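CORE FACILITY INTAKE
Project code: CF-77B
Contact: R.S. (postdoc)
Sample description: multi-component assembly, two entities in total
Requested service: structural model of the whole complex
Turnaround: standard
Below are the sequence entries exactly as provided by the requester. Do not edit them.
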Amino acid sequence: MRNTSDQKQRSPRRSGRNGVRVAAVAAAAAVTLAACSSGSTPTSTSPKQPTGSATSASITWSASPIAQVGIRAALIKAFEAAYPKIHVTLISAPTNTDTNRAQLVTQISGGSTSPDVFMGDVIWPAEFGAHGLAVPLSNYLPSSYWSKFAPGLVSGASYNGKVYGSPLFEDQGFLYYRKDLLAKAHLPVPKTWEQLKSESETLQKDGLVKYGFVWEGNSYEGLTCDFMEYLTSAGGKVVNSSYTKAEIDSPAALRALTFMRSLITSGVSPSAVTTFEEPQAMSVFDAGQAAFLRNWDYAWSNSQTPSDSKVVGKVGVAPLPTFAGQSYPGYSNIGGWNLYINPHSTHLAADLTFVKWMSSTTAQMILGKTYSEIPTVESVRKALAADPSAAPPIHVAAQTRLVPRPAGTPNYPKVSSAIYTNVNAALSGSTSPSAALAAAQSGINTALSGGL
Amino acid sequence: MSASVTLERPPGAPAAIVGRPDAHRRGLARLGWGFTLPALIFVGLVTIFPIVFSIVMSLSNVGLSASGFALNGFTLHNYDELIHAGVWRYALGFTVGYTVITVMVELILGTAIALVLQRLTRGRGLMMALLLLPWSMITVISAELWGYIYEGTYGVLQAISGAIGLGRPVFLGTANGAIVSMMVADIWKTTPFVAIIVLAGLVMLPEDVYEAAEVDGASGWSTFWRITFPLLRPTLALAVLFRILQAFGLFDLPFVLTGGGPGTATTSLAVLGYKVMFEDLEFGPGAAVATSTALLVLIGCMAFLRVFRAQAGSEEAA
């Protein structure tokens, strides 16, 4: 119905104008506020404890799900059985490592006393250490404590001479392959990347499988991990040892990136691999649609869980291949998680008790034996490697060669994003591998000098 | 004419309050302020303080430590860094282009839908309820649903495209594909909003002008361009402004669908601000991204209003 009143005709325009002003201000506020968030709920009021011995307290532990099978609850239960007076409440953190980190940084820099202890990525020590967002554990725990961990882990958890994270479990890249398909086609487990590609093509041509190889190619941290493996196996590196200059624009890097792109153009990897993170890659492999998978340790248990997987009993595990002409095996990127303590925690003694217990043989055996995570304590690792009933990745881990990500600088997040955004652009074909490496080189140099 | 009562004006518009003494009115005004002041203070605290803090932060050397931020003196360095950063310039271009295209398409489609709705005699209520479904859905949820549609190995759209012989493209895997896919999801969601605003404008148009046009034998097309469109312009302007403000803050769609990729192809200003602030922990430059974005959209809106008013004025004069 149309209205005939003159008086009301003007009203839309006028209220429109005012409405617009209000909306403009509101939107400006919204844009500015979009970035702000906080969440701080102190959970306990017990007084500050002297550091050293175990006491009674109620603490919170923030941790993202580990392979979705109840590991965190099992660890807490065993800890509370050993220390009945310390109660641990689990705060389930986001699975995306960057979201998890953003949340913790906001919370801790905002002064929150919760979580008391948090499980954090192995690439966080420099950033958290530089900004004082984690307690320097080496101030409280003696060197005898640190010497029990497998080599390399403690130095990876250190920044400027102090240790910030206590290694909880380790992870690394593995090559998962379909034993049944390779047997059917009389093919060996590939030792070079080139071999993996040609075997994939054979299997696809014979109609045995839809895709050859699936991995993590999305524009995110995981792509930096995958790229590091190709790059290091080809003989390249990201930065110089003093973290002052990028060295990624090299012939070795070009070989690595050109090969990764060729996996897609040849159809060995689906084009959608440039949007894959771990779960997508795993689900394609577990659905029986790919012959090879690059993934972490936890992919083993998923592939052997009948409710999630059609390939139970058909999967083999091997170290990652290398490039032709380089020595086998190729490099695996180091992942895994450490335990950190919130500097605002009011239960430091209980926190330390919890952190220390997590590196005990009991806890490490729960992780390694029951849930097939790679333990960080050397003695437990050796015991499991000698145990034939331990999961295959734990045996394979003894043969792999490891490479860390260039996380020795507080600017690592920007270094990594310069890697994964440019590598992803080259993989999706929107830029050439050489142009992508040049862009990554300049991006990393800017990041190292503290720029945007 | 219409079965719906909600869109009709209530019978008897409220008459202006006349003949009251000034003192009484001032008293009322004071009382009004008294009642609204607590709310105003609260709004001030939760909106003005963060805005001011964000501006101050963008003009400071910000140090981050366990005890929070420390503002270490005035600097223009944060803005200088933005202007010289390729990622910021790209994000600005992408956000502006995205805003212009989606708002234009939404305006055209929304107006068309509103014209249809206005002519519907039966089922208008049902149609509007259906139309509002996408609009009422939380963007993160609808983005996840679009994620299933666009997915690169088992996605619905890929399956359809394969079945009709168009191949199996990975919609979010290329820069252009991801941008267009995102625009489609945005247009799907916000066109109904434009349609509702335009419909509200349409039902308020005076009927006598249309009767006159009919008597003069004007065609439907020229009736639309010469009567409906000019009379509707204030409403359209309102819809456009609301949409510009919203589209410029584009965050949830790229955050869920692409994380700003492939490469940095769908990194909007808001996504960039989030990354700089919370992933890189660069709070100064991050605040500069947020502040400059708010400033740019305000300038954009004011420019739009000025042009719109000038045009409206020149037409009235003609």
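Facility notes:
- The radius of gyration of chain B is 25 Å.
- The first helix of chain B runs from residue 22 to 58.
Invoice: internal transfer
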